Amino acid sequence: MKRLQLGKMANHRLLLPFLVSCLSFSSAEAQNMFQRVDSFLTASYMKGDIDTAYIVRPKTKWTLLGRLNISGAKIETQGQANGHHFYSEMKADYKSTLSARVSYLGFSVSMALNPAKLLGKYDDYELNINSYGRRFGFDIIYQNAHNFTGWQDTEGRGRVKLPAGLLTQKTLNVNAFYTFNNRRFSYPAPFTQSYIQRRSAGSFLLAVSGQGQKGTVQGEKLDVSTQTLMQEMQFKMTNIGIGGGYAYNYVPHNGWLLHISAMPTFIVYSNTSLILGDTRVPLHYHFPEAIITGRGAVVRQVGNKFFGMSMVFNFNNIGDEENLSVHNIKWRVRTFFGLRL
Predict the structure, then answer these.
(1) Which pTM value belongs to this model?
(2) Which pLDDT band, with edges at 50, 70 and 90, does 89 fall under?
(3) Rg of the chain's alpha carbons, rounded to an integer?
(4) Residue 14: what pLDDT?
(5) Which of 66, 132, 200, 314 is a Cys-bridge partner for 137, taking CB atoms 3.0 to 4.6 Å apart?
(6) Which of 295, 193, 301 is nearest to 256 (CA)?
(7) What pLDDT is recorded for position 219?
(8) How far, in Å, are 109, 202, 320 from residue 183 at the CA level?
(9) pLDDT at 267 over 80
(10) Rounded to whole angstroms, what are the CA distances from 141 to 14, 17, 63, 72, 217?
């Protein structure tokens, strides 16, 4: 029995160093592999055919970012109905979100929170997907809104309020662009801060835009005193535009960056269906129909900290003001504060 116990003790004494060596080996291998991956990502992140006198990558690998986002939408319509000219304006509820982002060598993870949605004060749905690369970039915005409110002026009848729930609309906006002068001009610098613009530079842009819309206006009595009625309306719109524009990053002083850009695209494909009551209303193409995307930003960098504000504005018009025209406006304003580590 004693020999057996001594044998077990000897086995334990041999097993412990073996396990320690295995763990040490595994830890060393894991660390070595992490270093290899980190070196590869760093080389890939820093690589690029750029003029470093104008744009550079941040020297640090980590970026922590907090943002406050506010967005809104508006629809303007005007035209003729039963011999009377009308103009209407409807706005969706503003959407406010708080978001945080962690980036490591260009790879990012973000999270967004809508306080009004959690409190039950915001019923619409909105999704924003943005990507701003050195050469290519795009915005994808989807909105499902039914909290539009506004008013309508009709010639000879005065103004009528348009209540929430009258208009239900689903909208998809897509805008993509190519930056020609990507060696000296950086779109990411003002919008994702993954580059730093050191000197002022601009670039011509090639752009493609698209918009799809589907909506319903519920027919109901709006003003009891005048017996004003709004007929039920259903509409579907698909528009694709091709064009270009120009963007400029202005560096007035070390640590400052001002950005402005405009990308008008002219509609080359349009498919519109509009039914008012029991009548199909034609919406003929009327030049110039366009989708315009504008952006602006102000960024201030102090040491490893930066803060600022950016804006994206989308506008499109279709139809003829003498018969029926529709203007869609979508915007987003973002304030942010970040740290580079």
Answers:
(1) 0.82
(2) very high
(3) 28
(4) 56
(5) 132
(6) 301
(7) 62
(8) 27, 10, 42
(9) yes
(10) 63, 59, 25, 12, 22
